[in-house]
């Protein structure tokens, strides 16, 4: 099999780090019993490994293609999507009243990871549909919910997010698409949207486009943007399909990676106007879109982790199989390359970063469940604040990390890695989109600095740091080099992160550009420290279980070694990042434009 | 123009850091007068920018292709190669007696940079031909030199290096290709070679393959390898072409990048045996190949710098042109994205690393000239030792750096970077080969640790560190934040590097795997510290010139700012690398194979 879901690590993180047992006692999460969760994960792993994962490489070689406004997806995608939705996988985290399984986000998260690890390109249709469902659940009218959500959950239809325009990129203030009210409650939509993932395809009978547009009297900028449902085919009262709407795919992009997922240019209203239905209130579109985007950003973070896991598995398999050169410590003949120290170093780096990012993301998912389902409002609010602090880190750091992991994956393969046939290069190409879409790393970092750090004077960041310090104290109580190394590097990392938070809060008013010059570095530093914190927590659990003679000893010992690797090799970067942020803005901003 | 050679920076490095004036007084280097050098660089820049650079993106879209044993190269390559060789560019650094220009390596180096920046794929034919020329100059008989070198320099023919075999990868001990003496001084060669760059093409009338093979009585392992000339067409006494030799291209690879350069599988001897001529003595092939490889490794390092420069130029152009979002410091409308701090940070990081690697490589080229041309043997020897220490760093660090720079180049373009049409993605794909071929970074690092560091007890490394310390002392004499930052980070970096050298020398015997677990990190640390050293030297020169009112003030001030950026953002990583090397081997080596 080209992908075997890391169920053991997933279960460990769910149970030991992300408090599944607590989450499953929240109102509305009661279905997430240990047995159910185990069964869901095992079934999902089986489906993803057997049905989706084998499509990944062939679909890269024969991507989706455009013809006369239609898009034919890669061989096998249509059938796999049927299997996916019929097994109920689109609905894992969505409400049972609309046909979903109503499981907590924490349980959906490993499912999402498995799906994306199997094929990023395939999984995107589910990710975008999730986003559309979330937006409609949040802001749709009862009638819209009743009409649109169930077919999205059952996979009869799929969803898209239409934000970007040729002139607007990430700057939504520049959106120009117009929505003109028709007096009957509907609107006519006119405009061009680009970079629309699965904006056209042949895997479902209808596509529900969620489109940002301006009404005629809307104020300028982001405060004048509304959200519209623009279905590819209009939907009759009884839910059957009506006329073809004036929303057409005029081309798809030729991309570096995720080639099997069609990235559409959509033209709305070239033939009289595309019929659209306002979601929620006028001019609140950006707010609704942000709900959807936060979910999507978390999802893209999971893509990074998923891709990293798959690249790691591929590299491990090659390193165990490929025999070349003698062992440094002396052997008579050539050995498999996993015996060579630098190959080992790359594999450990891939593994450690993937495990750390997984742990942080799952913990984040659990916080999201607490934020939505906990009976106590103050507890909900406190958890929401921490979750929202983590979202840009989970998105930004996990995807930046996945680029490095995919790169190391090619490197482990040596010359064979550069040959497309091998498949390692696909991961390297695919990874490059993850730090760009749903907001580049810089946009995540702006969010982290602006809305999540300086706005509350660093309070949430400091509250997390207090928890990190508690873990440091626990590390001090355990004997052994591994735990000493973890404690040393985690303490240095948390100190660096605190200094950076203080620096940002202190300087945001007097030197805004100097602060933002370090924003991405701050995001990376936070990812490293919080990822390292999770690895340290994991090592402490592993130690305790080993002491008690519980669990899989080889797995638990590997966890401690991996946590130690993370401390020495990844956490140790914290000091350099601190210097670059706190000392480094003069170098960033010193040149005049014409000196470039 | 898609590429404008950075002549100002090149001249600055040649004259101020690499001591061109000293080099040009060496015996045999006298032609490198300031006027000649300036003219050579300007002409080369013109030719590369106007003729080669425009081929780069189209040839990626329509790469070379194989048909019935022949390879048709991308449109325009054949004509461009004619122009290249007719202008004498293949011969810049080769002896005048064989038709070359006889200029020092230091002057050839910027020419090589410009050629590779224009098109890596195109330039590879010249790089491999250079390697063949070097090998024949070193080890060829007088008759072989007379017959083969001039046509290689004039571009009538081209050269290849045939090392890799399907089962052998980087492990030359495993080479199986056989060479059977025919009793007439010739050999019949039988075997398969893979990954042969320009192993077949239509740009010249003959191809001179240099092939590693074993004679029947050769000892096993690397001590039984000999080097053979195996021309595609046999060459008659008078230099005219004879019969087609039994060396055939059976396929070319479908690669992630450098798609326009054909990477051939060559089959020798399937039809009776390929006629080959021994170069030098039997069983000394590896030694000769290493001469060629050291030159080629330096050349691949230059490829990294060249690609980084081109990716930087592309990103700068886009960042100045693309208008999006308001300025953070407040502006009424959207601004070009070069005003956004994180875009600026990425551009500075690309720029600073490219300039540092350029400076280090050019300084290395100058040392090579001293090592070959200085009249005093002790001076030659001392410079050779430093040059040889630098070669794996120039190769390994410059290419690892170029991956990051090409990655940032895509990132600056945002979503457009992921679209192949834009061209930034090509650099990202092309870059990935550079850390692999001519020896992966790990192989460079093994060379750096084994042959270049521990063998002499760290003596050469320490001699270089003494020079770094002298620069630190000079930094202390200059006022200002920039120089204080440079001094702080350079001192921390050189201390870290010294500790690592001591660690390696002290532990190589007792813990060889623990030492090599940090080999690539040591290579990166050495690159950062020595690159930072060159940037500090450059800043000192710039300061002195500004004080004296000499030179281009904007350029010189930019150099100081860029050096400061390098100190705060790149040199600051030294401490983390030190920790990972000195503390980190337990984490690298701790897992058993079945724990992966």
UniProtKB/TrEMBL annotation, chains A, B:
Acyl-CoA dehydrogenase/oxidase N-terminal domain: residues covered: 38-156
InterPro entries with a match to the protein in the record: Acyl-CoA_dh-like_C_dom, Acyl-CoA_Oxase/DH_mid-dom, Acyl-CoA_Oxase/DH_mid-dom_sf, AcylCo_DH-like_C, AcylCo_DH/oxidase_C, AcylCoA_DH/ox_N, AcylCoA_DH/ox_N_sf, AcylCoA_DH/oxidase_NM_dom_sf
Key words of the record: FAD, Flavoprotein, Oxidoreductase
Record-annotated Acyl-CoA oxidase/dehydrogenase middle domain positions: 161-269
Taxonomic superkingdom: Bacteria
Ranges for domain Acyl-CoA dehydrogenase/oxidase C-terminal: 283-448
Co-factor requirement: FAD
Record carries keyword Flavoprotein: yes
Domain Acetyl-CoA dehydrogenase-like C-terminal: 465-590
Family: Belongs to the acyl-CoA dehydrogenase family.
Protein name: Acyl-CoA dehydrogenase
């Amino acid at each position: 099999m080209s992908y075997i879901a890391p169920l053991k690590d997933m279960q460990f993180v769910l149970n030991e780090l992300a408090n599944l047992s607590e989450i499953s006692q929240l109102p509305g999460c009661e279905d997430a019993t240990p047995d159910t969760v185990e069964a869901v994960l095992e079934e999902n792993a089986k489906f993803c490994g057997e049905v989706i994962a084998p499509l990944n490489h062939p679909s890269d070689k024969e991507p989706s293609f455009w013809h006369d406004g239609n898009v034919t997806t890669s061989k096998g995608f249509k059938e796999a999507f049927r299997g996916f939705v019929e097994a109920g996988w689109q609905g894992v985290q969505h409400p049972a009243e609309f046909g979903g399984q109503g499981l907590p986000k924490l349980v959906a998260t490993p499912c999402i990871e498995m799906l994306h690890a199997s094929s990023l390109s395939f999984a995107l249709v589910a990710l975008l549909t999730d986003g559309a469902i979330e937006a409609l659940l949040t802001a749709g009218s009862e009638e819209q919910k009743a009409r649109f959500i169930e077919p999205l959950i059952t996979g009869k239809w799929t969803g898209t997010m239409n934000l970007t325009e040729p002139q607007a990129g990430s700057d939504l203030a520049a959106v120009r698409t117009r929505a003109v009210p028709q007096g009957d409650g509907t609107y006519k939509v006119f405009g061009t949207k680009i970079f629309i993932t699965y904006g056209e395809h042949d895997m479902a009978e209808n596509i529900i486009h969620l489109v940002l547009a301006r009404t005629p009297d809307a104020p300028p900028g982001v405060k004048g943007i509304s959200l519209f449902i623009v279905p590819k085919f209009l939907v009759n009262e009884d839910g059957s399909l009506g006329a073809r709407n004036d929303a057409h795919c005029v081309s798809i992009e030729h991309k570096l990676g995720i080639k099997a997922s069609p990235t559409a240019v959509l033209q709305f209203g070239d033939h009289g106007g595309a019929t659209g239905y306002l979601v929620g209130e006028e001019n609140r579109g950006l707010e609704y879109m942000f709900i959807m985007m936060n979910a999507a950003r978390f999802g893209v973070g999971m893509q990074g982790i998923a891709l990293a896991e798959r690249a790691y598995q591929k590299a491990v398999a090659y390193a165990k199989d490929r025999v070349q050169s003698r062992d440094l410590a002396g052997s008579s003949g050539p050995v498999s390359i996993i015996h060579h120290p630098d190959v080992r170093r790359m594999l450990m780096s891939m593994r450690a970063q993937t495990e750390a990012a997984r742990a942080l993301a799952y913990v984040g998912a659990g916080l999201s469940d607490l934020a939505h389902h906990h009976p106590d409002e103050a507890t909900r609010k406190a958890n929401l604040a921490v979750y929202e602090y983590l979202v840009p880190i989970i998105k930004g750091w996990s995807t930046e990390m996945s680029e490095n992991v995919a790169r190391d994956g090619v490197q482990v393969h040596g010359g064979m890695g550069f040959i497309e046939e091998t498949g390692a290069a696909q991961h390297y190409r695919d990874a490059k989109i993850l730090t760009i879409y749903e907001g580049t790393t810089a946009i995540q970092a702006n969010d982290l600095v602006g809305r999540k750090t300086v706005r509350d004077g660093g309070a949430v960041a400091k509250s997390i740091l207090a928890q990190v310090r508690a873990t440091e104290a626990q590390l001090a109580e355990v004997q052994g080099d591994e735990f000493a190394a973890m404690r040393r590097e985690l303490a240095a990392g948390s100190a660096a992160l605190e200094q950076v938070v203080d620096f940002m809060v202190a300087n945001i008013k007097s030197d805004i550009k100097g602060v933002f010059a370090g924003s991405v570095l701050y995001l990376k530093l936070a990812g490293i420290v919080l990822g390292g914190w999770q690895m340290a927590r994991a090592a402490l659990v592993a130690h305790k279980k080993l002491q008690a003679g519980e669990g899989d000893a080889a797995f638990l010992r590997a966890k401690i070694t991996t946590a130690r690797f993370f401390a020495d090799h990844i956490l140790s970067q914290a000091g350099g990042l601190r210097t670059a942020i706190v000392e480094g803005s003069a170098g960033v901003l010193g040149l005049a434009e014409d000196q470039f």
